Amino acid sequence: MSSVPATTVVDQVRRAVASVDDPEYPGVSIADLGLVETIEVEDGSDGPVAVVGLIPTFSGCPALDMIATDVQHAVTALTDVRDCDVRWLSGPVWSTARMSPAATASLADQYTVVLRRKDGGLRCPVCGSDDVAVQSDAGPTRCRAIAWCASCRNPVEVMR
Ligand SMILES: [Zn+2]
Asked: Labelling 21: which of 72, 88, 108, 127 has CA 20 to 30 A away?
């Protein structure tokens, strides 16, 4: 049996999980997006089993299967972990408030994805104008809508 303290293994698992990027936004980790809720390490019959509780961001997104697979690969690569069990939690409900400032900035800078402000307004990530209007609910995925900035005329994706 491993003599590594459980807390150290949890830290290793936490770092491994944090290294997983969202498949739709390479460079933005699922930890920064606020998906990671619980990380536990249980004693399995063959060794430590990591149990990772994730919160689905945008219900119905096909990326969820990819995320679960990526997390399993990253965590089971750890020498102190025998297996990894990824569970999608039904609560708490994900909201854009769970995103880190770094993730919010990365989405705006690299992907021109913006979040709705609390007042429902939008700000163009390209030019900073508030004159952004959602044109269609038919975004590239069900997670997002396409908006247009009337000031710089760039398309902007709006995260629901
Ligand atoms: Zn603009």
From this structure: 127
